[in-house]
Amino acid sequence: xxxxxxxxxxxxxxxxxxxxxxxxxxxxxxxxxxxxxxxxxxxxxxxxxxxxxxxxxxxxxxxxxxxxxxxxxxxxxxxxxxxxxxxxxxxxxxxxxxxxxxxxxxxxxxxxxxxxxxxxxxxxxxxxxxxxxxxxxxxxxxxxxxxxxxxxxxxxxxxxxxxxxxxxxxxxxxxxxxxxxxxxxxxxxxxxxxxxxxxxxxxxxxxxxxxxxxxxxxxxxxxxxxxxxxxxxxxxxxxxxxxxxxxxxxxxxxxxxxxxxxxxxxxxxxxxxxxxxxxxxxxxxxxxxxxxxxxxxxxxxxxxxxxxxxxxxxxxxxxxxxxxxxxxxxxxxxxxxxxxxxxxxxxxxxxxxxxxxxxxxxxxxxxxxxxxxxxxxxxxxxxxxxxxxxxxxxxxxxxxxxxxxxxxxxx
Amino acid sequence: xxxxxxxxxxxxxxxxxxxxxxxxxxxxxxxxxxxxxxxxxxxxxxxxxxxxxxxxxxxxxxxxxxxxxxxxxxxxxxxxxxxxxxxxxxxxxxxxxxxxxxxxxxxxxxxxxxxxxxxxxxxxxxxxxxxxxxxxxxxxxxxxxxxxxxxxxxxxxxxxxxxxxxxxxxxxxxxxxxxxxxxxxxxxxxxxxxxxxxxxxxxxxxxxxxxxxxxxxxxxxxxxxxxxxxxxxxxx
Lengths: 411, 236
Known about the structure:
A: 19% strand; B: alpha/beta; Rossmann fold; 4-stranded antiparallel sheet; 34% helix; 29% strand; globular
């Protein structure tokens, strides 16, 4: 029998049970689209996260206190700055606050830092208007681009020269809550640098001088962390080792490299988990395909008997049913790929939106556009087709094994 | 009778079925010869082994013992693939319930044996149309079988059985689903094919009218040939 004829026979049979074929294909489409979407999203998110952290200077190290009793003070700064290979140490204070301009308020992330050092830490940083707030200035405030010009809003939240009132609530030792308030004047607005996921989300922060933050938050000289600037990227590891030796238990140390590695590990685990979910859904689709084809064999028992009586060889009967599985896999995989691209974009937007609501967190995720490569599509298609064909094997084998006399007698 | 003149030779054929551990002997040593071009009918009560015999002659099943020669070939020496090819080339089946593929056209149904034997699409259409005109359904080739009457559907099945030019046509209760007038029309069609194409035809039937239209009746009882009735001399 010619393969073309076998293909035509199976396609006709496939068309005959349109609804069931369509439902089976939908199951495969769901499974395949999930795999495609998740792979595209993890690739996109990874690219995004790595991109975010690469905004941080490659020679920058972040040191954060890790034990409650340990205070990161000027003393620590003076000690670490003497380590060989360290060019500068830039302490910072950070806190979530409410920023109000006129009647409008928004929760944001405030960073107290010596602003003249910001370009050392974020090499791509620049000013859109105004200037950086000098370290002795206790009333100037610098705005991240997305704070001054929020996405999707026609008028700016604040511009150069605006008055911004910063307030936060602090619990007293006696349990009472006290609100602290101070008004600042916008001294500068930063250009958009595309950073929203760092320890300091530059585009979404407001920043005042370190001393102003120390006073406002009543920190008594304790910092929330410190950026160390190494001489070169190559010196980073040596510096990390030395700091670890100096403070073996009291600090956590991150460099661009370790952050990217951590991100890679986290993304790896997420990817594994998501792939598990997607593969399970594909397996469900495979069982669906098996059930659908098995039912087809039962329904067409008499026809199979006839084909055998007319002289069709077993291998062509097997091919006939495997062909149907192949059609299901091909259509399901192809449509699943297309649906997966759409699904990934929708999910990425939804995730970005849900994260926007909590944009004051230390690490936030913005919109990470999914990334698709040809190999994602091909792997999903190949996997779907292979799984469908494997699912079709048992029904095909059953069809070939039917006794023609018994099959022809079936009513 | 000269060997070349024998289309079917059945020698001491046995068939025993195992049902739930119990043995049912359906055939218990059948011997039979069918002349090339003969129109033979097999009669007998239910359970006498008629259909089993027909299925074995048609190589749809394998016997427990004995041999079947078709055109001199010891059929059951063939392996499964060889047997399938043999059925395709040598045997045409006609069933009581027509067994047409309902989703496709009359023409495609008739083409099926040719499709299986790799005849090119153009040739199989030409040959199928010839046969369809021969059975009087040339103008209904594009219809679906469900649009035809029972008698017409059986004629489609006959066209499908002869399209590959088989040596033998086997029919199991071919008039069982038809009224007697249509049934006899189908039998006359078979007779004319038998006469014009010199095809050997073996029918299993319950209907004495059908049986008496053939050249010879073989009576089976309890899995053996009980008697024969020759209706036309040339059958011998």
